[in-house]
Amino acid sequence: MKKIACIVGTRPEAIKMAPVIHELRRDPEFLVTVLATGQHTDMLMQALGDFGLEPDANLNIMRDKQSLDHITASVLQGVGGFLDAEPQDMLLVHGDTSTTFAACLAGFYRKIPAGHVEAGLRSHDLSLPFPEEANRVLTDRLAELFFAPTQGDADNLLREGINPERIHITGNTVIDALYWILGRDKHTKFELPEGRPVILMTAHRRESWGQPLVEICSAVGDVIRERPDVMFLIPLHKNPTVRNVIRECLKDFPDNVIFTEPLGYSEFVHAMSRSEFILSDSGGVQEEASGIDKPVLIMRTVSERPEAIVHGTCVLVGTGRAKIREEALGLLNEPERRRELLAKNTKPFGNGEASKKIHEAVRRYFARQ
Ligand code: UD1
Ligand code: UDP
Fold it and tell me: What is the CATH number of domain 2-171+353-368?
């Protein structure tokens, strides 16, 4: 029996790893441990819980307003200590957080092969998104197996000299998660006022802290002034640096803005479906929205998910007030614009079979050893 540790630290890692964990656990050849770094506390546990999971071990590293140094150093030491106590045959890490990179490094120092789920995404600008682009590049220097969601991601890895035999194109596991939630009998809905158009908004990126976040909120205010019938649903990220600014900037619009705590995954998926379109800087939301045919205005200057823009439902609008306002009002007032956006959607992130493909690739990897 092979021992595999799946390492998760933040909400998106939990959501996107959950289908992989369930898939691997169905295989009696594998003993799967879920190691939480606890980079996020509440948001990680909430997301794992949505998939009926809980950590087998939790390093609980989170501090209020933590620094990148703190996360990286404590994950490296914590995961290292765990691996010394419980040696593993493989690590699976996901995506681009500081947990991802530091956990992969801890494995590398112990010569434990790592599989990188969601490998190969690149904005080709190390400073954007920050620090995620660097985390991805560094993780892909250290990993042994690469699970690339798309052909474009695999091409990025090939250009960096990765052996093609180690790359598997799988689709994105977030689509597995999305379809799993949509396929359940029981749905938790967030009740929204009937008869009013709803726009879902999320924002949290580090590079948007400060002025860009103020611009984003100002654009939301502009849209409300033009279209007072519109409701914004804003589930606030737990990060105080983000939530306090958004709350303060939009405090004058109590009739048009609903603030909530982070929504459970089922509630969030329902809110996405119910909204006219989504304003977001989130990575996962760009992929999910293409999966459920919902337009997204991406409030970033670059995306490492070009497929979401070329073959999905997304438009890159930056973080400037005027452009966000203009694009949002365009989508609200001209249904034709929405239709055009949806017409190019080929659902580029797969059909919900990514975790099966990852399981297969892991099996074949061990069979060859
Ligand atoms: C982190 C990831 C980012 C990912 C995002 C997903 C890094 C450097 N950043 O950003 O890549 O897109 O998660 O949401 O890896 N907090 C809580 N409770 C929680 C979670 C966060 O109180 O459940 C607060 C804490 O004060 C914490 C702060 O938020 O210090 C920031 O958390 P951190 O993980 O450093 O950054 P995120 O912006 O969440
Ligand atoms: N999400 C959620 N509840 C919320 C907001 C987001 O479940 O209130 C989900 C969303 O569907 C997506 C993931 O969290 O799967 C995105 O997380 P986040 O935006 O924190 O990180 P990113 O994707 O930008 O790394």
Answer: 3.40.50.2000
d(CA 299, ligand 2 centre) in Å: 15
Residue whose C-alpha is closest to residue 14's, from 279, 141, 37: 37
- Residue 298 pLDDT > 90, yes or no? yes
Give the number of whichever ligand sits closest to the CA of residue 65: 1
pLDDT per residue over 15-53, tens digit each? 999 999 999 999 999 999 999 999 999 999 999 999 999
Residues lining ligand 2, judged by CB closer than 6 Å?
Answer: 11-12, 15, 174, 202, 204, 235, 262-263, 265, 268, 282-285, 288
β-strand partners of 198: 231
Q: Which residues line ligand 1 (CB under 6 A)?
A: 10-12, 39-43, 62-66, 68, 71, 96-98, 131-132, 204, 206, 238-240
With a cut of 80, say whether residue 359 has pLDDT above it.
yes
One fold for 2-171+353-368 and 198-343: yes
pTM (two decimals): 0.98
Alpha carbon of 281 to ligand 2 centroid (Å): 10
d(CA 176, CA 167): 20
Ligand 1, atom 7, residue with closest C-alpha: 97
How far is ligand 1, taken at its centre, from the CA of residue 71, in Å? 10
Structure token pair of residue 218: 């100002």
Does the 198-343 domain belong in CATH 3.40.1180.10?
A: no
Q: Which residues are catalytic?
A: 96, 118, 132, 204, 206, 237
Instruction: Let me know: does 272 contact 235? Beta carbons within 8 Å.
Output: no
Query: Hey, where are the domains in the chain?
Result: 2-171+353-368, 198-343
In the chain, what are the helix, strand and coil shares in percent, each to the nearest 5?
50, 15, 35
